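Input record (Table S2, row 464):
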Amino acid sequence: MDKISIRDARQEDAIGRQATLQGWIRTRRDSKGGFSFLEINDGSCMANIQVIADADLSNYESEIKRLSAGCSVTIHGEIKASGGKGQATEVQASEIIVHGWADPEEYPLQKKRHSMEKLREWAHLRPRTNTFGAVARVRNRICRAIHDFFQEDGFLYIHTPIITASDCEGAGEMFRVTTLDPANIPKTPEGKVDFTKDFFDRPSYLTVSGQLEGEIYATALGKVYTFGPTFRAENSNTSRHLAEFWMVEPEAAFFELDDNMQLAEQFLKRIATDVLNHCEEDLAFFQQRIDSTVVETLETLASKAFERIPYTEAVEILEKSGEKFDFPVSWGSDFQAEHERYLTDQHFKCPVILYDYPAAIKPFYMKCNDDGRTVRAMDVLAPRVGEIIGGSQREDCLEVITSRMEAQGLDTDDYWWYLDLRRFGTVPHSGFGLGLERMVQAVTGMANIRDVIPFPRTPGNADF
Ligand code: ATP
Ligand code: MN
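Output record (manganese (II) ion complex):
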């Protein structure tokens, strides 16, 4: 018999097939007529399939009547039309093989609903719940949409390094990579750490962004993107920061800030559209159980034009809002989550792209505007989540970028290769970074970023 996923077995065109299904029991119900109903889930979709196990199966009394949530089974049987509500098909079992038991006294995922906090302690079992199964499927669809979008638009997928020695690009605190023994650190005669004894001969770190390396490939191949793990050792225990997260970073040559904004908007629209088209069942679950604005938010993302406003104008809107913010707003300060949320959720009620930020709060590589005080930065803010994308047009003038680096106290010798890109065949170029987990939050309505990545790493937590 052919193996078939529950997702396929639930379709009407499967009726009449002899098939093999494999998965985990969700529930068992014994009927008075001497047979049992089993609900089986295999992760291929949110829904279970109902299996009818008649009493004449050889292991009915010895095994089937002992099945409980979490047991693993193989079912051979015929897929039939079902008279039941909410299901087109069911399976009449001809054989049921039990692979593994799950003692109902000990298995934690029984009928009772557990809090998200509790489920975080069971990172090894939580994917078996409806919520985490749905998050995993939606996350997968988002990743597929990311690759499809860039591949169809001619962007090359490149892999930027995870270990890097360029430490100071201002994106955040970095994790050190070293093989030195912390109990026995080699020292120079001056009493400093002797990094020449370390694995890479110099201080090395986990990457906070693939951008600088992305620029190298963009200024050779035109349009590229990198998509991989990213690390920030910020000690910020918030619902939207992880120490290890995934970032998608396109970088394109002959690309100005307007092109960059356009790309970011098309990109987010594509992800939203693909999820709407392919994850209907999971979205209905999020809408019902997690956040009743999920579908509406996605539809806005997919079809409404993003609002584009300069930073300076956003400051004016916030100042005039009459809102009481915990952090006051004034020109020159960075926006906090509460400000971002006011702009997206209350003022514009749609995604917002802020651009032309004060130079003083942005890194050296962002292109200077002629006004002498702002740079060609852009942040995309999504409803509920706030900043989801950060990007910019890059400074392409050797003299300007050199003096910006000096002003920010960076050693230009460390960046000789980065400056070479401006020395040899420089071009206007731009890029941005999308935090995958923030996107998953925007799409699913999940309140805490720890619940949209399989194994969250946060301060004090890297258990498994
Ligand atoms: P924030 O101000 O929200 O901390 P950032 O400005 O430091 O973010 P960028 O350096 O612009 O972030 O990174 C690009 C994108 O990566 C952000 O827009 C966000 O989606 C994501 N991101 C940044 N830091 C984190 C983090 N610690 N955990 C998860 N996603 C992150
Ligand atoms: Mn940012």
